[in-house]
Structure formats: structure tokens, C-alpha cells
Amino acid sequence: MGTGEDSEMKVGTVNYAFDGGENSEKNETSFGIEGAAGTSKRRGVQLDWKDLTVTGTQNKQAKTILHNVSGSAKPGTLMAIMGSSGAGKSTLMNTLTRRNINGLTITGKVEVSGVSLGEDISHISAYIQQNDVFIGALTVEEHLRFHARLKLSKKSKSFQEDKIKEVIRIMGLQKCAKTVIGTPGLSKTISGGEMKRLSIASEILVDPPIIFADEPTSGLDSYLASAVCQTLKDLARNGTTVLCTIHQPSSEIFDIFDSLLLLSMGRCVYLGPKNEAKTFFQSIGNPCRENYNPADHYIWETSVLEGKEEESKTKILKIWENFNSSNYRRQIEGGQVESIKSDPLVADVTKEAKANKANWFVSFYMLLWRALISQYRDKSTAGMKFGQNIGTAIIVGLVYLRIPWNANDNPYDQTDVFNINGAIFSAVCSFSFAYLFLVVFSFPRMKVVLRREYYDGLYPLFIAFLTESAAGLPFLFAMPFIFLGIQYCMIGLFPSWSAFWAMYLTCIMIALSATGYGYMISAIAPTIEAANAIAPPLMVPLLLFGGFFLQSDSVPPWFIWLKYISWFYYGAENLYVAQWRDGGFCGLSRQTNILAGFFRAAAQNASECAPTSFNDCCEYQIKDPLISFVDGSYVLETYSYKEEHWWRNIGCLVGLAVGFRLLAYCILAFKFRASNR
Ligand SMILES: Nc1ncnc2c1ncn2[C@@H]1O[C@H](COP(=O)(O)OP(=O)(O)OP(=O)(O)O)[C@@H](O)[C@H]1O
Fold it and tell me: Domain ABC transporter, which positions (predicted)?
């Protein structure tokens, strides 16, 4: 893991001592981690930030969020960044990691061993975010394998597998290595502590010299919180520079840290060894009471208290001035590495991290592997998807049941024309809704993962989007086949293979268009809930203007474009054409007798019609299209459906399926790029 054995070494222009703090003996709550401490120490890097001033805008007014903040984090130490809410912890962390800094004006320098890396700092550091984001269907080991393949792609498989085993051991994840991670709220999950350790494990696969952890203890009970901090401490002891924002740690957890950076009102009011903070506060007349959690004391003393704002601010500014004139501040400045153009270690690590990044082919392969697992592993979800489709097909089939279903034995009559048209309409609608919601329920969840990994630079977004769509194809090909098979048997659609395949192809295209629209809605919607809420109102106009409820001519001109982006419009026409173009039926409606007075002639002809086969029937057909459909072409004519539109419709459906996906991708890419990292 490490590259050096020395406990003291020179990097850039300074010597770093792996002091490891006074808590370097093993803590009982460290998951029994042999830990990084069990392996040889690595050469570390020092992170310096010099005179950082960060300005944002609030209510159209410039607001200084960080005031001239300077500091250093040394290799081998675990630093706690603390402060009351709004003190500037996240802003400092974001500035150091170059994330979430859109709209902020930053002056000052951030350097790694004296080298200003800019966005390349992401190649030399890991960022453990507050919220753990995983693909719930993967096991712990598979999740790590996915990360190893993408982050260490130039290393051999055996190296990657060894690395996976090593981080599993270091993070104490052996017991749950083969366990499915799970999705909170949807399925059984590994514990919160295990999730946090898994987050850390996926970041330390590449041995980053710097680790940033944003509130790693949030949501964990005190035992797990302590264990997670101890884990970070173990990593630090191995030579890693670890910075960690933390909210009100218990005294036991606070004890684990080596150094403390205390922020208040965007100012650094203390930075130095954790244990010396007590002396500092005592020296400025704010001593910590005996048996009182020092962390609570420091935060309390540097908080702007409600009702005592002015008093608090004056007090904080005084602490800040005291700190600025203290030895601690001078030591920080004296201990910072002088700015240099390059450092061999930093250059090597950055180069290796870039070189190890997976190429497009590996990214595609791994993303497809993960997408297939995530879409098909969960048997209950996969079963639900199939069940929902089969269930809908059976219900529609029962409503429009025709027995015997074979049109040769049971020729269509006029009632059948209406019923079959109704069945086709129901099928298109239920099909469209089912497929659209399939995506709307799942993709927003996936979007969160893609966003996180996109910012981590794991892979290009378009490959992830492509594989996500590709992984759904087996389902989109299988389901229409089953759905249509059931409909054919129960409703008695036109019995020819050419009609079946034509309908099958159309159904696939409808499913692809509906899912494409689902991706687009999911890309637009900011949250899962929003996606579910806006999906129906965004789908209904397409249904309305799809030609079922409004004749094309009567569509208001300003809505006409909706017709052209409606897969209902193209899909329904093709299904009707497939059903009726080959002649279809003929005969009289069973209800026609009721209208005997009005349609006397028709009724008389009908009595002569005793069809025993399709052709027999057609010989006796009624020629008056006002009261009956003579054959399938009359049905198509009545609804203005045209056979010659068949391939045009297929082309348009392909266009919609691709177009909606392209739009979804562009929206996602734009939103990811425009939003903060
Ligand atoms: N982009 C921004 N533009 C303007 N003001 C901002 C911006 N980001 C943060 N702030 C403000 O800067 C201050 C510090 O915010 P920051 O999120 O860094 O604090 P914090 O210490 O992390 O707080 P918390 O513990 O509540 O997360 C807050 O008053 C916040 O409203």
C-alpha cells in the first residue's frame, strides 16, 4: 500500500512527521480493523490553503463566506473541521476539493505539497460524501469490483481482486462482502455503518494521499460513528492526509482526532493540535469546564447565539483576532510548503490516477454489467414487472374475450370491430403507461448514482446513459411478445403471422418510445417524487392528440405538434393497419337486429349470412358501409388509418425512441454540468 517505511520524510520543501496523534493506540470500536496501520506507511502529501477568501451572492448582494482562511493538513493526521451551522465548513471543504463552487469567487491558493493542482486535485484525493449512494442490487464485493475495474483499469485483474480483498479487510466488511447492499425504503439493506465503511472502501481502493470526508458520522449511532472515525484515523496513521467535517462529536469521538480546525462566521478561529485547543481557549479567557465535552464548548463559544447576535459576533471576532496573533497562526504559516511548479510524488500520483482510468470500452462493459444486475437481479422487482405486464394483458383479454379466438372459426362481426379496436386502444395505453412508469420509478434513483459518479470522473456520462438504455432492451423485447401472445389468444386478433410480427414490431417501438419519454421526464424532474408527479400530466396530451379522441383535422393548430411527438399516433395506426389490412372480417353486428327497423335491408341480408368460414361470410357481406364494415379496409378508412403509413410510422417511432433518449441525455448532461459538482 505504501511506498515508504520512514516515519519522517521530506516531500516538497518540508519534513512531515507522522505523529499520528496521541491516540495512535488501537481503539476498541474500530471494527477490529487491522487497518491501514497494519500495512507500511506511505509517503504523504501536505495540503495547504493560503489566504482563501470565498465570496458568493445572497439576495443579489455579495457575501463573503470565507475570510482569508489559511491552514495546513499534514500527512498522517486526522483533522476535524468543526463549527456551528453556517460557519463555512462545507464551503471550505468544497473550495479545497473544487466541488460545488459554481457562482463563488475564490481568491487565495490551494496547494498539494506546494503544487497548485486546480481540478486535478480530484486525482490525488478521495471525497467521502455525507450521503451514501449505491446501486442497491449489487453486493458489497460487486460494488467494490465495479469501482476497482474503473479506477484501476490498467492494473491486472488479480491486482484488482487483491485490492478488493484488502479494502474489505481494512474496512471490516468481511461479514457482509457477499450481501446485497439494498435500497433504503425499498429493500433490506446492510447497516448504516457498513454503508459508510463501504463508501470509504470504494474511495481507498486507489490509495488516495488525501481523503476528504463530509460529515461521515451523520445518521450513525455513537458506536458506529466512533468506529467510522477510528477507521479514518487508521487510514491517517498510514500516512494519508484526512480532513473531516463533523457536527458536535461526542468527547469519545473528538478524542480520536489529531488536529482541529474551528470555523466561525467564515473565519478560522483555531487551527492546531486538538489537545492544545483547550489551552488556547483558556488563554483567551474562555476555559472549558471540567468534565465537559470540549467539542461542545468550542462550538458553543464560537456560535452566534439567538437574541445575543451582536454580543456573540463581537466575542467571535475577538477570538479570531486572538488566534491571528497567536503562535498557532504563525506555526501554520511557517509550516506551509512554499509554492513550487511540480513535485515528483504529486506528479506521479496524478499521472497514475489518470492512466488508471478506464477507457470507453471497459466503462461500457462494466456499466452494462452493473445495469443488467440492477435491472434483473431483484427477482421481486423483475417478477413485478413481468407480473404487471401479464396481468394487464389478461385483464384486457378478459374484457374483450372472444371464444373461439381464431377468426376463421369465429369470423369478426361488427361488434368485434369495435371491441378489437377498443382492445388495441387499451393495449397501447396500458402498455405505454406501464413502460413509462417503469423508467420513471427506477431511473431517478439511478440518476443520483450517475450524478455522483460523473462528478467523481468515473466514466463519461453518455456511456452510462447508453448502457442504462441497453440493459432494458431484453425486457422491452420479451414483454411485448408475451403481452401480444396473450392478447392474440384471448381477443382473437387477425390470425396471421405477418399481422402478429407487424404488431410485435410496433409494440416494441411503442415500448421504446414510452421508455424514452420516461427517461426524458426523469431527466427533467429534480427528484423521484417530482418525476412521478409530472409523468401523468406530461403523458396525457400525447394520448389526447394521438388520434383516439380527436380527429386530426379538429386538433387546434397550436397543439398540432403534440400529435407528431405522440407514439400513440404512430403506434395505434400501425396496430390497426396490422389487424385490418389483410381483409379482416365481415358480417353483421349482433346488435344490428335491434336496429332492424332502420336497417331493415341490412337485417334481411344478415339472415342470409350464415358464415361457416371467413370467406363464406364475406360473400354475404353487406355493402352499405354506413351500417357495417365490409372488410378491414373499411375499418381503416373509417378511422383514416392508411396502410401506406406503415413504414413512415415505424421510422417516426424509431425517431421518437432515439429522440427522447437524446433529449434526456442532453438535459442530464446540461444539468450535471450547470449544477454544482
Ligand atoms: N453559493 C453560496 N452563495 C452565497 N452564500 C452561500 C453559498 N454557499 C453557502 N453560503 C452561505 O455561507 C454560509 C456558510 O455556509 P456553509 O454551508 O459553508 O456552512 P456550514 O458550516 O457547512 O453549515 P452546515 O453545518 O449547516 O452545513 C451560510 O450562511 C450559507 O448560507
Answer: 47-290
Ligand 1 centroid from CA 129, angstroms = 16
Q: Helix, strand, or coil here: 675? A: coil
Nearest to 223 by CA among 192, 198, 201: 192
Residue nearest to atom 13 of ligand 1 (CA): 86
Residue 12 CB contacts under 8 Å (≥ 6 apart), including other chains: 46, 113, 114, 115, 337, 338, 340, 343
153 C-alpha to center of ligand 1: Å?
37
Calpha distance 512→567 (Å, rounded)? 10
CB 203 within 8 A of CB 126: yes
d(C-alpha 476, C-alpha 482), whole Å: 11
Please tell me the distance from the alpha carbon of residue 178 to that of residue 145, in angstroms, as a whole number: 12
All cell numbers assigned to 523: 431527466
How many Å apart are CA 32 and CA 18, to the nearest integer?
22
pLDDT digits (tens, 9 = 90+) for 376-421: 887 777 787 788 888 988 998 898 888 766 666 667 777 778 888 8
pLDDT of residue 40: 52
Query: Is a pLDDT exceeding 80 seen at residue 341?
Result: no
DSSP type of residue 180:
B
Could you tell me where the DSSP H helices lie in 554-622?
Answer: 560-564, 567-580, 600-608, 614-619
659 Cα: distance to centroid of ligand 1 (angstroms): 39
Cell of 565: 411527438
Alpha carbon of 89 to ligand 1 centroid (Å): 8
**Which residue from 55, 65, 66, 97 has its CB within 8 A of the most atoms of ligand 1, so it is best to mutate?**
65
Residues 6+ apart with CB under 8 A from 61: none
Q: Please give the full DSSP string across 9-34, using - where no structure is assigned.
A: EEETTEEEE----TT-SPPTTSTT--
Ligand 1 pocket residue status of 86, Cβ below 6 Å: yes
Residue 89 beta carbon below 6 angstroms from any ligand 1 atom: yes
CA distances from 272 to 72, 283, 350, 450, 559 (A): 9, 14, 29, 38, 66
* 563 vs 465 pLDDT, higher one: 465
**pLDDT tens digit sequence for 512-549:** 999 999 999 999 998 888 998 998 888 888 888 776 66
* Mean pLDDT value across residues 460-472: 92
H-assigned helices in 205-250: 222-237
Ligand 1 centre distance from Cα of residue 463 (Å): 34
Q: Do the beta carbons of residue 76 and residue 102 sit within 8 Å?
A: no
User: Hey, how many other C-beta atoms are within 10 angstroms of the C-beta on 360?
Assistant: 11
Nearest CA to ligand 1 atom 5: 56
Cβ of 83 below 6 Å from ligand 1: yes
For ligand 1, say whether the CB of 103 is within 6 Å of any of its atoms.
yes
- Asked if residues 296 and 248 have their Cβ atoms less than 8 Å apart, the reply is yes
60, pLDDT greater than 70: yes
Burial status of residue 571 (CB atoms within 10 A of its CB: 0-12, 13-18, 19 or more): buried
pLDDT tops 50 at residue 23: no
Distance 66 CA to ligand 1 centre (A): 9
Q: How far apart are CA 529 and CA 444, in angstroms?
A: 9
DSSP code of residue 41: P
Asked if residue 677 has pLDDT above 90, the reply is: no
Q: Which domains can be identified in the chain, with CATH numbers?
A: 8-130+209-301+309-355 (3.40.50.300), 378-585+629-674 (no CATH)
Please give the pLDDT value at position 585.
Answer: 53
339 compared with 169, residue with greater pLDDT: 169
- Over residues 612-645, the pLDDT tens digits come to 444 444 444 444 444 455 577 777 887 778 889 9
- Distance between first and last Cα of the chain: 29
Instruction: Give the pLDDT score at 212.
Output: 93
